[in-house]
Amino acid sequence: MSIRGLTLLVLLLAGCGGAKVAVPTDFPVPVVDKVPLPIGIYIDENLSSYTHTETLEGRGEWQIELGSAQRPMFQSLLEGMFYGHRFVDQVVGDNQDVAAILVPSIEELQFSTPQQTRSEYYEVWIRYQFKLYDNRGVLLGEWPLTAYGKSHKQNHGSSSTSLQEAALIACRDAMAFFSLQFRSVPVVKDWLAGQLGGI
Amino acid sequence: MHRLPGFGALLVGLVIAHLSGCVTSTIQEVREADTGMESGDAVVVLGRRTRPTPGETEMDFISCVANGMSRGDNSVSVIDEQQFLDDMFPWFEPRTAPINTSDLPELINQPLLASRLDQMGLKYLVWIEGSTRRTDSAGSLTCTVTAGAAGCFGFLSWENDSSYEASVWDVKTGKTAGRISSEAIGTSYMPAIIIPIPLIARVRSSACSSLAGQLKSFVQNKG
Fold it and tell me: CA A181 to CA B198: how far, in whole Å?
């Protein structure tokens, strides 16, 4: 067999491989002005075990495991954003020590590979939905947040590490926009006005 | 197929190790303000990753320039890029990073960020844009593997073009201190008579060392 034939075979096999990645669990703490209130966060089973699996025609199965990164991600996020925070076991219950309870969920995850987009990037989009409850468990409101991450294929040795990097950047993007836009979300503005008055 | 004697193989290896394609590089500097580094001052070298573009700067080029600035004569203190992004999170993420120097004052006037920057001793932000691309290629090379032998025959050549620009932002004044562009072009060759002999033009490496050297001089106002 010629080198060309061998190379073609290797490329074909590689193209069938897909990837299985888990997002790393180290996240930075945002440097922002803290909300002078303690907050609770409820992470349900759907979020903590969230995995996106998709089969691409001719390119195998691709899996992005995001669930295990959610708790450390929100731990770092809330540490930087609030005077105090804790993970609560349920939305309705003994939560008088916090001012409100945040309940995040992932509504959708999409990704693309360079072969699909004819570009040089792996890209990941995550659509979060956030619900804010008062400390008695009454829903105050909800809002969506779409996060995006990309990774240039030239920077990584394999499709797995490229996709993992894109997913990690999407998680950081979610944290960045959550922390920078939190106070301007209408439901949050109303809640903060009620809690802090003119502060 | 003939086997090369041990000495011959060693000689060929040594020759290959010292052969490389030619690289022509140019560097240009535009200074807009005085610069200078004092004890405790540091710089950070960052890549632009705002949106998907065909020419996003390679991560290893950013680290190459950072390493080049922190080593050798007139070295300066360079903060690791990832450490800086984590320490300044979320202000320098791909979709939140300042695009122009006019965005800087809003950032550096925030007490929390100003305090963090002071702790780091950050004096200059160096934004790098550009990439290395293959601009031309020619020739063909065929390799054959059989049960008893293997070999290649042919000739390949390709041209790479590196084009990078570094913008130096003064964190204290919130203004652009200057810009340095580094261009390098070189042609690599690979003749093959049984064994392919790559003569690689180290274009990106040349652009990196030129840019790092010039940046070191620029921020210290030397030369």
Answer: 53
DSSP state of B202: -
A26, A152, A161, A179: which to substitute to probe chain B, counting the most B Cβ within 10 Å? A152
Contact with chain A for residue B96, Cβ under 8 A = yes
Residue of B60, B95, B118, B132 to mutate when probing chain A, most A C-beta within 10 A: B95
Contact B143 A30 (CB under 8 A): no
Instruction: Kindly report the CATH class assigned to A33-196.
Output: alpha beta
CB-nearest partner of B116 from A4, A6, A31 = A31
The chain-wide mean pLDDT, for chain A, equals 91
Report helix, strand or coil for B3: coil
Kindly determine whether residue B89 and residue A150, on different chains, have CB atoms separated by under 8 Å. no
- Enter the DSSP assignment of B112: H
Position A58 scores a pLDDT of 84
Q: Is A119 an interface residue toward B (CB < 8 Å)? A: yes
The pLDDT, as a whole number, for residue A164 is: 96
pLDDT tens digits, A29-61: 999 999 999 999 999 999 999 999 999 888 899
Domain ranges of chain A: 33-196
Domain membership of residue B171 (yes or no) is: yes
Question: Which amino acid is it at A97?
Answer: D
Which residue has better confidence, B18 or A93? A93
Cα separation, B221 vs A128, in Å, equals: 48
- pLDDT score of B4: 45
Checking if the pLDDT of A12 tops 70, the result is no
What pLDDT is recorded for position B9?
53
Q: For residue A161, what are its two tokens? A: 């590490």
A106-127 confidence digits (pLDDT tens): 999 999 999 898 888 999 999 9
> What is residue A141's predicted lDDT score, i.e. its pLDDT?
97
CATH of the domain at B51: 3.40.50
Local structure of A195: helix, strand or coil: helix
**Paired tokens of A12:** 């074909």
- Interface touch B93/A152, C-beta < 8 Å: no
B152/A3 CB distance under 8 A = yes
Tokens found for residue B41: 């001052």
Q: Determine, yes or no, domain membership for B197.
A: no
The complex's ipTM?
0.88
Structural domain of B53: 22-132+161-182+202-220
Check CB contact under 8 Å for B90 and A154.
Answer: no
**Is residue B55, in this structure, part of any structural domain at all?**
yes
- Total structural domains in chain B? 1
Q: Classify residue B29: in a domain, yes or no.
A: yes
